[in-house]
Design a protein that fits this description.
By secondary structure, the protein is mainly alpha-helical. 74% of the residues lie in helices and 5% in strands. The two termini are 18 Å apart.
């Protein structure tokens, strides 16, 4: 069991290091390209409005939210929320971030399959995360007190069901990757075609979007580490319960 706690601590430290690295990359990129004004002088708000209109979307609002790089698209509320550092900023980075969020709007409109799958997984993942631990505990109780006399693995299989539900969060992050990369590809095309950025300015936007995408890669690695940690914990629990029989 001591080995597990050592591995668990190492896993948490690794997750923290990965998250800090990814966050540092995107903040560094925004600091650099967020101070480079576009030749069109269009702000993040202007960019979002123009690209929505160009995409034939007329029922989505553009709002402002507090925070730094807290930008997101809320499909149920039909609004693209831009952070304070993006909304009124006419930098290359701000326009890139705003265009990326509009990319998600266009994914929904055009029925982009990975985006639709991710939306389905949102609710399922929340339920799965809530049920994962209770299922493992129920399985452990069955393994200790009920199935021990019947030489059955039902309790263990129930616990594995909990592990599978816990793993839905990792699946969600995995599906998020193509969604985010596709939104960035759409953004890059639209920024140039709509005259918001010049071809000379586009490489800087690409670097900003690439740095942002690395945060999702980091999230996937972190989620995978946490899943393996949870799976190992379950195996140790059941191994210990069977040694005590």
């Amino acid at each position: 069991m001591l080995e597990y706690y050592v591995l668990s601590l190492a896993a948490m430290l690794l997750c923290g290091a990965i998250a800090a690295w990814a966050s540092g990359k995107v903040r560094s990129a925004y600091k650099k390209y967020g101070s480079m004004p576009t030749s069109s002088h269009m702000t993040g708000y202007d960019t979002a409005k123009r690209l929505l209109r160009a995409g034939g979307v007329h029922d989505i609002k553009v709002g402002k939210v507090a925070g730094h790089l807290s930008d997101h698209y809320h499909p149920k509320k039909k609004i693209v929320n831009l952070s304070e550092s993006v909304y009124g900023n006419d930098s290359i980075a701000a326009c890139a971030v705003a265009a990326h969020e509009v990319g998600h709007v266009l994914q929904k409109k055009k029925g982009y399959a990975p985006y639709q799958l991710r939306q389905v997984l949102v609710g399922i993942t929340n339920v799965g995360s809530a049920l994962a631990l209770p299922l493992v505990l129920v399985g452990l109780i069955l393994d200790l007190f009920v199935t021990a006399t019947q030489n059955s693995n039902v309790g263990f299989y129930i616990a594995l069901g909990g592990v599978a539900l816990y793993g839905l969060s990792t699946l969600f992050v995995l599906v998020t990757l193509p969604v985010e990369y596709n939104a960035s590809r759409r953004a890059k095309k639209l920024l140039v075609s709509e005259g918001i950025l010049t071809k000379e300015e586009l490489p800087y936007a690409e670097k900003m979007l690439s740095a942002a995408a690395q945060t999702y890669v980091a999230s996937l690695l972190t989620s995978l580490i946490l899943f393996l940690r949870f799976f190992l914990w379950v195996l140790i629990l059941f191994g210990g319960s069977r040694r005590r029989r």
